[in-house]
Every structure is written in structure tokens, then in C-alpha cells.
Specification:
The chain has 157 residues and is α/β, with parallel strands linked by helices. It contains seven helices and five strands; from the N terminus they run E-H-E-H-H-E-H-H-E-H-H-E. The two termini are 29 Å apart. Pfam families: NAD_binding_1.
Length: 157
């Protein structure tokens, strides 16, 4: 509800739909003159020319407006996504930005398959592990504590 709180969104395939809803709302708020913090959208698809949905319309427009920073991962064209094949690879590559969003009070949203949910969670735990110099077990506990109320998921098979 507060457009100054950063959103960090993770999805692949049809999981993009609810993220578009968030971004559309924020774009309208920005166009109405409200202050809107840039969100991060991590999403995966096969290749930019195959299934990079809305890349030439909404997503491009919202990126130009400053509402979102797009973080694609192309499994069959990773060279076109900073050598990131999957969403979790992109999260790790851009972990500094993920950490900044968290420290700014960011909310985290994930929509996708159980596999992507598992892999995203592993990378978020690894970021905590690295930042706090914890072992994996302690980082897992910290993940549950610090993202309580700030991490929402919609997982499907």
C-alpha cells in the first residue's frame, strides 16, 4: 500500500501475472504524481525472442518510467541475461541490490512453481549467510525471522 516501500519480485512463466498487477498499480501512482520507489523484478523464461512477455509493452514502459528494474534470466540464452540461466542465478548476481531493498524495508513476493520457490529461498538464505557470516542452519533461521511478514508466496505445480 505504500509505494515508497521497494518490492522485490520473483517469478517465471505465468507467475508474471500478479507481478504485472503490482507494477501497473505503481505505474499509475507514479503517473499521478506520487513518489514511487523502484521495484526489482526477477523473472525467468527461455529466450527473449521466444517468451519474454510484455518486453515491448508494459514492462518496457514501466522500466522507462522508473517503476521497475528488470532482472531477466534466459535459460536458453543466458548470454543475453548477464550469463544468468535461472532466476536464482540472477538473484545471486544482483544480491547487493536485493540486500539494499531488504534494508530499505522491501517486501518480497514470489509466484511460480515449487521448484523455483525452493531455489529462490535457497539463494535468499545464501545472501543472509554471506552478509551475516552464518552457517546455513543459522541463516535459515534468520531467513524465517527477518522475512516474517515481508515474504509472500503463491506456489503451484
Amino acid at each position: 500500500s505504500d509505494p515508497t516501500v521497494p518490492l522485490v519480485m520473483f517469478c517465471a512463466g505465468s507467475g508474471l501475472a500478479p507481478m504485472r498487477g503490482f507494477l501497473q498499480e505503481r505505474a499509475l501512482q507514479k503517473q499521478a504524481g506520487r513518489e514511487v520507489t523502484k521495484s526489482l523484478l526477477f523473472f525467468g523464461c527461455r529466450a527473449p525472442e521466444e517468451d519474454y512477455l510484455y518486453s515491448d509493452s508494459n514492462l518496457k514502459e514501466w522500466a522507462q518510467l522508473g517503476v521497475v528494474e528488470l532482472k531477466p534470466a534466459f535459460s536458453r540464452s543466458s548470454g543475453e541475461s548477464d550469463d544468468c540461466k535461472y532466476v536464482q542465478d540472477r538473484i545471486w548476481k544482483d544480491r547487493t541490490e536485493v540486500s539494499k531493498a531488504f534494508l530499505a524495508g522491501g517486501k518480497f513476493y514470489l509466484c511460480g512453481s515449487g521448484k523455483i520457490a525452493t531455489e529462490v529461498k535457497k539463494k535468499l538464505i545464501a545472501i543472509i549467510q554471506e552478509a551475516r557470516q552464518l552457517d546455513e542452519a543459522a541463516a535459515t533461521v534468520a531467513f524465517a525471522e527477518i522475512l516474517n511478514g515481508r515474504f509472500a508466496t503463491d506456489v503451484f505445480e
